[in-house]
């Protein structure tokens, strides 16, 4: 059975680091640099998107049911509005605590942590 992928939408440098961290934890991570529309219907267990870098993908992401982790260094009205439009999302503040980040990813991917709807700021 194919593992569910984790899609990463972030700047090239951090997305490489993030993919390497997730790979070291046993996850299949794919970096998205162009569009997130193909996320719908794929075996994707989680999407990780940086704000404001990934803002151009937000319309696509608002149409999926997969959980989304949004990484940001500031909270804005636009970001909160986007988070409200997602079914299941988490917002992590940068700089990231990588242990907390990996634990959140692990819990989401294993089904231990399920956001019932809306968003949580972690």
UniProtKB/TrEMBL annotation:
<protein>
    <recommendedName>
        <fullName>Response regulatory domain-containing protein</fullName>
    </recommendedName>
</protein>
<dbReference type="InterPro" id="IPR011006">
    <property type="entry name" value="CheY-like_superfamily"/>
</dbReference>
């Amino acid at each position: 059975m194919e593992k569910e992928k984790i899609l990463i939408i972030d700047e090239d440098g951090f997305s490489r680091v993030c993919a390497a961290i997730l790979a070291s934890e046993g996850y299949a991570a794919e970096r998205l640099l162009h569009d997130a529309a193909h996320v719908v219907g794929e075996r994707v267990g989680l999407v990780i998107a940086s704000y404001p870098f990934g803002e151009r993908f937000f319309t696509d992401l608002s149409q999926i049911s997969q959980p989304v982790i949004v990484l940001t260094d500031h909270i804005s009205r636009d970001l909160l509005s986007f988070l409200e439009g997602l079914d299941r999302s988490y917002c992590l503040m940068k700089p990231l605590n990588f242990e907390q980040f990996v634990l959140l990813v692990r819990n989401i991917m294993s089904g231990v942590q399920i956001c019932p709807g809306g968003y949580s700021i972690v």
